[in-house]
Amino acid sequence: MRARLEATGYLVDDGLAIACFLALRLHRPLFCEGDAGVGKTALASALAGALDAPLIRLQCHEGIDASQALYDWDFPRQLLHLRAAEAAGVTDADRLEGELYDRRFLIARPLLRALQTHPSVLLIDEIDRADDEFEAFLLELLSEFSVTIPELGTLRADEPPVVVLTSNRTREVHDALKRRCLYHWFDHPDFARELAVVRRRLPHVSARLAEQVTALTQALRGHDLLKPPGVAETIDWTEALDALGAKEADPDLALATLGSVLKYREDAERARALDFAAVLASREV
Fold first, then answer.
1. Rounded-to-integer distance, Cα 115 and Cα 278, Å
2. pTM for this structure?
3. Peptide bond into 54 cis (omega under 30)
4. Which residue from 153, 152, 138 is spatially nearest to 70, judged by alpha carbons?
5. Pairing verdict, β 71-73 and 146-149
6. Coil, strand, or helix at residue 57?
7. Would you say 181 and 174 are in contact if contact means Cβ atoms under 8 Å apart?
8. Which of 90, 209, 239, 276 has its CA 20 to 30 A from that of 59?
9. How far is Cα 106 from Cα 149, in angstroms, rounded to an integer?
10. Residues 6 or more apart from 161 whose CB is under 8 A from it?
11. Span 230-242, pLDDT tens digits
């Protein structure tokens, strides 16, 4: 599992590799929790690449409901079909109703598409943004990997999709949902692993620049920031400096490009109090 994931460019430690293996072997959803930008969403993409399976993504948000996540009926097409049937003189109400709720008029949303697609990787992204009611709905669906559509009956997955749920922990997700999942906490990586990720994602960038930006990001995380930067921001910052033609970082250029790594004014102000020159000097060889 580790070799397959790393072949896609996603570096994992033993704990995460084992969690992914067990999710596949036991057909259990994998619940990934941690700060934004630490690689939770990227894991689902890497799993899809490793398994040569499509990635089906459901982006959660406040107010999301079953019709947005599971299925809906194509009302415009149903109305056109009804008008065509009436024009053709069809008056059998039972026949018309049966035709209107045929599978061809069913719009499969991400959850239903994942149940009907084998193999597939289902990413339920940022579940902590959804409401309690949607969590309860997911609880039932992920327990049986089936759904009942009143007009069509029960649709069940021939083989469950690989399910990855992510949470940025903006609120606590209920224990009932977590209990049905394997759990993995995504922490910020240490310097060596983060540098390896940056080098893997940006092989064209100079090694010196990648090392210095990684060191600066690690130093920023040591400050009391509203939103500590994740690995994604380290990559963005490195890419921004490289786009400016930098082969290595310098304090002035690092400060000028803080918008690539920090997204809050308060964090940028705190970052300016950091001695960038000293951090860079500690990486001199």
1. 54
2. 0.85
3. no
4. 138
5. unpaired
6. strand
7. no
8. 239
9. 10
10. 56, 114, 115, 117, 118, 119, 120, 121, 122, 145
11. 999 999 999 999 9
